[in-house]
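[09:14] KT: can someone run the structure on this one? pasting the chain below
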Amino acid sequence: MSTPFPLLKMKAAVIIAAVLSLCFPITGFALTIECAAARLTFDESRGSLESLTTLKSGHEYLDADTDRNLWLAVLPQELGGGTIAPSDAGAFRWYHADTKDSGLTLVWEDFNLPAMPEFAVTVTMGEHVSMPALSWKIQFSGLERHSPAVVYFPRLPQIARQEKEILAVPFWMGEMTDRARSLLSPEAGRGIRREFQYPGLLSLQCMAFYQQDGPGLFLAADDVQGLRKGFVVFGDGKEG
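[09:31] RB: done, structure tokens below
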């Protein structure tokens, strides 16, 4: 792999579907999913991701200064082209995905969209069927013949620092850097955004941000059809 490349704040956004490799097996309790490697906690009133913690080291991956929106959806131009977030929902509910409490489903509703009054967003999380990972799925309903122009999901805003951080992306033959934060925030107040598209120069539908010889995050799209998607990393101008 070559190094470095001008790449990460770290917000990671995968369009439409993803697999987060952290956990196996999974058990659910209230708005917490806990597994052998990590614990994810969601706000029960809004569905925002509040915590992503490794059980072995206790490292919290989410920085305190973040908006916590798990997804964003950009409306098509015929509906004004605005952006919808979980925080725009008038109602939120959740339930365990099955009788074994091994999955979690989050539902956002009542977005006050006259053109799509029944619009709702559903996110389902559970154990991946063929690998030790947490599977995330997002579904939009009540679209009334419309569809979002772009969906950013899942979003992991403001990833907290670790020592010896490495960002790796299978861009062409593969690239990695141990200076992701400084490359994506080259000076105060200036953040750089990088998007890696698939199909395109990505050889695989994944990316990783991790501690050298230690724990980290691995994001991959579980998409055998190879539909168009992007992996995005960007800086906040604060090396965050």
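[09:33] KT: thanks! Residues 75 and 225 are 24 Å apart (CA to CA).
[09:34] RB: yep, looked fine to me
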